[in-house]
């Protein structure tokens, strides 16, 4: 029958492993959630740019049509001007003014089209970068999701094994020891620690030599660190990885 000190050392080791597993798994779902938000955000940016590009295309189509209309109108006016149908100078001048107006409008539209061409090219460049950012986020998310699902199933077996080992230990451990251990666990995750070179390995304060002697002579008495309150056990009870599994 193992002593309470031995059992507490094993329990401390199992709980450390379980805590590590929780931490590992605990971070991943959070990371996945964060990446999902990032992906949504990047998709929104892509959609915004696509919309801006559609608008600019629509604008350019409209402007090109107007340009064509003005060109048609100008050639018609020129035909009228030189057809011999113009009755007087005033009418001729009026047509000339209209043609001038049309020409200045055409110049203005052509300038706007040239500017919008630059804007369009910039937007295409932006869209390309945004798409690659989006793909990058998507790949990252996929990777984390894969990790999470493989880790969950991997951990599942290990978790079950540790839980059953823990249960077996608790069944043998004195009830007051377990209660004290759990109480300390609420403020120190490592509630039971070994003595290393005469010091508490939880808070590194020195253990009085007399207490160290008592620990050796009274193997079934509970000793706690005066400084941090953790349960102490001799270093030779410390569990190495291969012993447990
Ligand atoms: Zn301590």
Describe the structure.
With 245 residues, this protein is mainly alpha-helical. The protein has 2 domains: 4-172, Helix Hairpins (Orthogonal Bundle); 175-244, no CATH class. It is 76% helix and 5% strand. A 4-stranded mixed beta sheet has the order 2-1-4-3, with helices on both faces. The two termini are 19 Å apart. It binds zinc ion. Zinc ion (ZN) binds at residues 200, 202-203, 205, 225, 227-228, 230.
Give the helix level as a range of percent: over 70%
How far apart are the termini? 19 Å
Mean pLDDT: 92
Q: List the domain count as a whole number.
A: 2
User: What is the number of E strands?
Assistant: 4
Q: Structural class, judged by helices and strands?
A: mainly alpha
Output the CATH topology of the largest domain: Helix Hairpins
Summarize the structure.
The chain is mostly helical and 245 residues long.
Q: Top keywords for this entry?
A:
binds zinc ion, 2 domains, mainly alpha, rod-shaped
Write the layout of secondary structure elements.
Blueprint: H1 4-81, H2 89-172, H3 175-185, E1 192-196, E2 199-200, H4 209-217, E3 223-224, E4 231-234, H5 241-244
The structure holds zinc ion.
Zinc ion is lined by residues 200, 202-203, 205, 225, 227-228, 230.
